[in-house]
Amino acid sequence: MSLTGSDLRNLVLAALALGICALLPLSGSGYWLGLGVTIAMFTALATSWALFSGPTHYISLATAAFFGVGTYVTGLGIDSLPYWGLIGIAGAIGAVLAALVGLATLRLSGVYFVIFTLGLAELVRQVITWVQNNSGQKGLYVLTDLDEAGIYWWLLGLVTAVFVTGWLIGRSRLGFALRIIGDDETVAAHSGINTARAKVLLFMVPGAVAAMTGAILAPRYVYIEPSLAFAPILSFQVVIMALLGGASRLWGPLVGVIPFTFLLEAVSANFPNQSTLVIGVAFLIIVYFLPNGFVGLLDRALTRTGHRREA
Amino acid sequence: MAAPVLSLRGVTKRFGGLTAVNAMGFDVSEHEVVGLLGPNGSGKSTTLNLISGALPLTSGQVSLWGTQISGLPPQTITRKGVSRTFQLVRLLPSMNVRENVVAGAVFGHRRRWGGEARDHADQLLDQVGLGGKGDMAVGQLTYIDTKRVELARTLASDPKVLLLDEWLAGLNPTELQIGIGLIRSLRDEGRTVILVEHVMDAIRSLCDRCVVMAAGSKIAEGTPTEVLSDKEVIRAYLGDDDA
What we know:
The complex is a heterodimer of chains A (about 300) and B (about 240).
Chain A: H1 5-22, H2 30-56, H3 63-77, H4 83-105, H5 110-135, E1 140-141, H6 148-170, H7 173-183, H8 185-190, H9 195-221, E2 223-224, H10 226-229, H11 232-245, H12 252-270, H13 275-289, H14 293-310
Antiparallel strand pairs in A: 1-2
Helix pairs in contact in A: 2-6, 2-7, 2-9, 2-11, 2-12, 3-4, 3-5, 3-9, 4-9, 6-9, 7-9, 11-12, 11-13
Chain B: E1 6-15, E2 18-28, E3 33-37, H1 44-52, E4 59-64, E5 67-68, H2 74-80, E6 82-84, H3 97-106, H4 115-127, H5 143-155, E7 161-165, H6 173-188, E8 192-196, H7 200-206, E9 209-214, E10 217-222, H8 224-228, H9 231-238
Parallel strand pairs in B: 3-8, 3-9, 6-7, 7-8
Antiparallel strand pairs in B: 1-2, 1-4, 4-5, 9-10
Helix pairs in contact in B: 3-4, 3-5, 4-5
């Protein structure tokens, strides 16, 4: 594997940006740190979501399912196992669950996949509610000595891992195979690609990342219950943010996460009861005016200036 | 005849009540160019789809070097060395010309990656007459050039058997001469080819042997001259009056 000059430059810039982000808790502002946690959380979720859904065009609404499973791993194990161990276990469970879901549904066409993934989050939530009702428990307390800054740094670490993974996949045969599958699955199969295996392997990445995100964030909620951990709105938020930024580039979702987080923040501060409405309107605007997200806008602007230069 | 590279035995495909391919059987030897002919709807493309694994067989068997390949998924058949083009050209729209060819080189029969795959793709693009066009978008290509890209992609994994599904269809007379020349160059390299074709000029000048189908069954087999003067074949194409 060889790195070109621009690869090295991008790596240095990324490392620098990461370093600056890591300093946020030192600012001493709880408000900004809270926003930082939200942005880091959605960056991890949306970027890993786009790793799979960007090239394959399969819209997954399973984020909440994996996320909820992750929070419950931490909730159930926090008294007996170390926090970092629980994050690892959550990642493994998320990956296995994603592989099972993938094996069951990825052979089907896109629409069935969307419905199945949406139903999955509901299913897991109902199962956990049922188990809790039978055991007489309503929720779980997650009590740790971890503060907001600790959670933020853990999330930042996860975001870094997601970007490194995405970058490596983009340079790998698997990444190339997925671009071919996204363009034409018949050609992919007739080029020797095991399309089902490639899709399942890649679907495990957002599964693991969402579960780890849930595991990291569980202590922040202090008290977790199914309706909070498996809230379906999370899945939709992740899709909207990723599409707003653009799922065709590794850094695309990040460009969507930041403005959308600020928008949600402003709305929930001023119109606390209308945040769902805003998400709906935002979704319509993105679909109508920004089908390829900010990345698509940028690409179009670049081609236009490129043409002008040629002319 | 030497041991066949590819052989079909009793290959049958039914779609509900319709028998599209009925007990087809023929062999293809190494370095041989076999033409698969027949009127529209006679089952030629379906036969090709059965060989490449695009469709599952209802019954019968396809084998490559004596090993059964029917029943395997298309990616496995491709990896074993059977590579194809499509009746309607299928290119990868988000990739440039070179990447379209590299796509055929990375996962197929003989695998290449990185610089090796790119060099190999450029070499194939030269061979099919697209030298220097590797960085173009596929949307900018003329019709025959899209066909050339697809051919280069098919060749990129060094397949043992090449399946060309009406590769010459839709070309204008000038392009047709270029196209025939291109397939002749493959023949001269000693490749094993099955081509589904309607263009008689091409069949006469390219094929060692022809298999003629009508209504899903084989009605004739032999050299182009033999089969094109065969009474059954003339009847299938032109009707009883001309036979």
